[in-house]
Amino acid sequence: HVHVVQSGGGWVQPGGSMTLSCAASGDSVCTFAMAWYRLAPEKEQEFLGGTFDGEIMAIADSVKGRFSISTDNAKNASSLQMTRLTLEDTAVHYCTAYCRNVPLTPETPARFGSWGRGSQVTVSS
Q: What is the pLDDT of residues 67-91, one digit of tens each?
């Protein structure tokens, strides 16, 4: 069993920055995959990026250059750094993690992942 806890979120002005944090834990030692998704109003869930065994695996083209992911593999932790935020970035952001020896893709968390409760990010003037 993998438990996922995330923190951060809130209100930010356009052009501002915000960082979300996530930590995963389990009943036994394993190799963690961790990923970030967002769900905006009236839109489909979007994969933003993630890590596998502490290595960055992907950053979505839609946010590349503005968003980045950092990881502390020893702590099974991941952070999503968001900069130059726009109104279109308003969304609930989710962290997910699993401890299977399966490389991370946008589809694997749906099969294996445990999910955090979500962090609302609201961008408005």
A: 999 988 778 899 999 999 999 999 9
